[in-house]
Amino acid sequence: MTVKKRSKPVSVNPLKIGQSLGGILAMQGCYRAMPVVHGSQGCSAFPKALLTRHFREPIAVQTSALQEMDVIFDANRNLEEALNAVLSKHRPDIIGIIGTELTDVAGVDYQSMLKSYKRERNMRGGLAFSVTLPDFRGSLESGFSVTVEAMVDELIQQAGLRGQRNVNSRQITLLPGSYLTPGDVMELKEIVSSFGFEVIALPDISTSLSGHLLTGFSPLTRGGVPLDSMLQSLQSGLTIAFGASMERPARRLHNALGTPYKVFQGTMGLKASDELLNFLHQISGVPVPIRYCWQRENLLDCMLDAHFQFAGVSALAALEPDHLRSVSEWLDELGVEQKALITSYETPAVAEMEREVWVGDLDDAEVLGSGADLWIGSSHGIAGAERIGAAFLAAGFPIWNELGSYMNVSVGYRGAMEWTNKAGNLLMRREAEHRESSIRHR
Amino acid sequence: MEPIRKEEIDDQACGSLAPKSKPCPRPKPGEAAGGCSFDGAQITLLPIMDAAHLVHGPVACAGNSWESRGSLSSGPSLSQYGFATDLSNNDIIFGGEKKLKDSIDYIAGRFAPPAIFVYSTCVTALIGEDMDAVCKEASGRLGIPVVPVNSPGFVGSKNLGNRLAGDALLQYVIGTGEPELEASMGVNLIGEYNIAGEMWDIEKLMNQAGITLLSRITGDARYKEITWAHRAKANMVVCSRALLGLAKQMESKYGIPYFEGSFYGAKETTYSLRQMAFLLNDREMERRVDRLTEREENRLSHDLRPYRKILKGKKAVLYTGGVKSWSVISALKELGIQVVGVGTNKSSDEDVQRIADRVSDDTEYIPEGGASRIIKTVKERKADIMIAGGRNMYVAMKEQIPFVDINQERHKAYAGYEGLLRLAKELVDSMANPIWKLASSPAPWDKEGSYDR
């Protein structure tokens, strides 16, 4: 419908997360990878701290540690040093150089530097690419998808196959968006493979950030999709992208290799799950596995049980664009009034939503969502939710106020059921608290 | 053991006010860890709880960092708001000064803070924004202090940022106000950020001894109390690496003597309280401090007995920055724990000297960051526990090493006598947790010798 913006000179309690963090996150889903942030130390230290706090896992990231004079005279000397150090010490399979607003404003040409670096050192076998992710454009979501796109590009170049390839029609490449948790990616892999497909997720945070006990410290990523699987994914007969932001990398695969693709913009709720399962049933010819038939009934029953809780209730959601769209569709199914939908930046996917969406910050969420019963968003929203007296449901990034949020599932029937129960329980508790306080005050 | 080399000690000198020989070492690309100067400046100033803190730059500098500190507030919470000018492409091309001015006006109008701190970032510094002029103009027009903090990330390390924040306080804040009460001859605490409420434990002790805490710089501070910091009779520098320069300059500018002290461990706490009374030059107060510290130490040693029994002879690797590197050693020693490895990464040369005074000869110094280096020390020295910051927490978990968080994200206060008791309990609970046994035992099907077939 329309995307609006409140006029205000300053961002108060930002919802937006720097793009480069999205890039670092995408790299965590690749095995033995190292993102190198081309910027000052804080450009990698802040995202590292934030990602560590959210996932409760060590996060692989390095920096070119730019200082003032480096930026003015020769920023690429630092990058070269950083690459030398990372390559000789850790031998990563995949390196992603992430340019920041600092290198962007200074006009540093690290793309051609990387090219000559690769040529001079005769780098083969590994994957090295660069992306430009300044923080004054986009947000976490765009940083993630742009990085995946660059990764896919580099894979295609590396493999050198244009048009000619052995298509494996039983293999599907998944492109899960940045808003999906490791638990979500795992669930999606499971759903798709239950129809008899081989599945390669790109990137795959479900095997790197879901909690593992691999000992032997390495500063590189542990887990994630290995490089040979990534290369193998080029033979897939189909790409499935989750989230509109992942359409671009899917289109790259289509343009270069002719791989058809399907984008699921929504991933939450009954209809979205129906759509996914029906699609998989259609293309595989395999009947929907019985456990999903059961889950569908479970979900419907749970929604019936919960509908008393949701009747007449209003919610606000402050999330990244794709996530917002997905959550909004789920709220629609519950009949919850959507008081305010706030997102970090405008994308075509939110612009075409049938609801009013605001690009803004968490202060806008407080103002526009005043009177809402439920606040859906990151841990940054706890204080705001308290101020407007809404129940707080943690979603998106970052979440630090609860354990195991990285294993939360929102996709499929199971995910919709988990969220419905969780939100319903929060509302029930809130109602009980209100009742108690009204008795006390009488 | 790896002895500290002379050059390394020289490198550490950048913590002091005037670098002796060379400036702070350049961070090594590809191996650097830790935050930037912008981060450091924020750490120092964000605990001024009633002020607004506005970040002038693209959104991520604020967006990725707000609400990441464990500095607690006893009242106002405006400093927990994240304010950013959120510069766009266009602002960078045409300049963001207008937006900065409007942002300051907006914040002043809507939140009415006693002061606004404005932080520069790499981008605004690079494009040459005249932040000082905008702040000065706004300050005159709005009638509230608008303090520019010129500490963009790329000027250097986190420590340098602490110092630059101290400079901003000295230049714009300290000396601009007068205390409300006449009998104000108190002590300032410098570089104590009230992580997990530690300041409150310290304040309680000072009150019991009858020592006035004049200005808190900056844990749980209010803006106006810093304006009259120059009226103190003594300064205590709690985190020496960060704000020693501030104390030194206050000494030369206002003639306020300072000392460096700590509140980790009973001995250090007692020393710090005594030193305050000494500098206040009040016999009666000194006697009160003696009585208080004796009473508290006796009570503590009684309460600690069961924990000491368990902790005696245990080995720890301590990896933390600045003052804590040496002061926590004393606390651990009092609990009977041997420190077998200690980080010297962010310590000044004085700090390193103090470490040397407190550890045994075969303690390993870990001069540089890198989780692998810390873990190597833990393994080689067969340490029972690792005490470090949140950044290394999950690395320790992967290696199944018991861990206690000592840095800014922690949730427990370890300062003072009560704090030492809390630390002892935390250490015991952490090492005794059943998870260590469970995590190291294999699944039944992975055990040697399966069922007879």
From TrEMBL, chain A:
One of its GO terms (biological process) is protein-containing complex assembly. Gene3D superfamilies: 6.10.250.1090, Nitrogenase molybdenum iron protein domain. Residues 19-426 form the Nitrogenase/oxidoreductase component domain. SUPFAM superfamilies: Helical backbone' metal receptor. Keywords: Nitrogen fixation. GO terms for molecular function: nitrogenase activity. It comes from the Bacteria. Belongs to the NifD/NifK/NifE/NifN family. This is Nitrogenase iron-molybdenum cofactor biosynthesis protein NifN. It comes from Paenibacillus sophorae.
UniProtKB/TrEMBL annotation, chain B:
Coiled coil: none annotated. Residues 36-430 form the Nitrogenase/oxidoreductase component domain. Keywords: Nitrogen fixation. This is Nitrogenase iron-molybdenum cofactor biosynthesis protein NifE. The gene is nifE. GO terms for molecular function: nitrogenase activity. Pathway: Cofactor biosynthesis; Fe-Mo cofactor biosynthesis. Belongs to the NifD/NifK/NifE/NifN family. GO terms for biological process: protein-containing complex assembly. This protein may play a role in the biosynthesis of the prosthetic group of nitrogenase (FeMo cofactor). InterPro entries: Nase/OxRdtase_comp1, Nase_comp1_CS, NifE, NifE-like. Residues 1-31 are annotated as: Disordered. Pfam families: Oxidored_nitro (PF00148). PROSITE patterns: NITROGENASE_1_1.
